[in-house]
Amino acid sequence: MKVRKAVILAAGMGTRMLPASKVISKEMLPVVDTPAIQVVVEEAVASGIEEVIIVTSPGKTLVLDQFEKAMELEHHLEARGKGDILSMLRKSNHPVKITPAEQAEPLGLGHAVLQSRAAVGAEPFAVMLPDDIFDCPRACLRQLLDAAESNDAPVVALLKVARSEISKYGIVDAKAAGERLFELRGMVEKPAPEKAPSDFAIMGRYVLTPEIFDLLAQGKPGAGGEIQLTDALMALAQRRRIFGYEFEGIRYDLGDRVGFISAQVGFGLKRPELAERLRAYLRSVICS
Ligand code: G1P
After folding, report:
1. How far is the CA of 172 from the centre of ligand 1 (A)?
2. What is the dotted CATH code of the domain comprising 5-255?
3. In the chain, is it the N or the C terminus that has fewer CB atoms within a 10 Å radius of its CB?
4. How large a percentage of the chain has pLDDT more than 70?
């Protein structure tokens, strides 16, 4: 299979990050200096995706504006000879084809995916949740796409989580099927730890086939009274083989306060111009 399109779900209310997400959407909160939505679009581009469909809630257009040309700002920087800042700014000008879609009501993650149906059409596609961002030797989505292409099957990202974290995630029943690869026999959304089939959690990157749309359209509300993507995936697993891939790299949860702060530190330390001062600061607070 060849995957050209990725759907980024940015319609959530962001309640986990209030009050920061009261006025601006949580996807606009920065990782060091780059809004999360841009970090995720850059991962899609690095993975070879040609079109990104961004699902937002009504009126939530800031995430789309991030990829528009900022004319006045560009003129201002040009006139002042600030070429380095200008070229950094230009990286966010239409880095890929961006297509908006809208989720009119917050009826769940699965329902949000369904809103991309017209834009995706009848081809395999990726889904990316911008709460999850990754620092990987090879883009996380690219790792999944390679597994999906070589097995000609849907693939989800997997990460082992602590028992105390299990009830925050979709948890899979997985059977080893190759290096880092697992065949999924079942999955359940946010189970109690004693009912979980394993400690392997689904992270927010998926490669799906278009059959998922019918399953989502038929889906009944699941955990939390919402139409869950995990339930549709479970139905898909009954029709065809689907896989999980234990990606190589680090994942940060931007919807969690410690995850958010960890991402600032982790990505900050990767920046040569920031690393030394940041490391000195961290040493000083830890040793005090
Ligand atoms: C969603 C999915 C869940 C997955 C998680 C990954 O949950 O429903 O299966 O494990 O993303 O971050 P949410 O974080 O929207 O509650």
Report:
1. 12
2. 3.90.550.10
3. C
4. 100
Q: Could you give the residue range(s) of every CATH 3.90.550.10 domain in the chain? A: 5-255
Q: Rounded to whole angstroms, how far apart are CA atoms 29 and 10?
A: 12
Mean pLDDT for the chain overall: 94
Question: What would the mean pLDDT of 206-223 be, rounded to a whole number?
Answer: 92
Ligand 1 proximity of 109 Cβ (cutoff 6 Å): yes
Given a cut of 80, is residue 71 above it in pLDDT?
A: yes
CA distance 280 to 245: 37
Q: Count, in order, helices (H) and strands (E) of the chain.
A: 11, 13
How many CA atoms does the CB half-sphere of 27 hold within 13 Å?
A: 25
pTM as predicted: 0.95
Nearest Cα neighbor of 207 from 134, 154, 151 is 154
CB of 9 sitting under 6 A from ligand 1? no
DSSP assignment, residue 105? Answer: S
Residue 279 has pLDDT above 80, yes or no: yes
112 CB-contact burial (10 Å; exposed 0-12 / middle 13-18 / buried 19+): buried
Q: What pLDDT, on the 0 to 100 scale, is given for residue 60?
A: 84
What amino acid is encoded at 133 in this protein? I
Q: Which atom of ligand 1 is least distant from the CA of 131?
A: 12
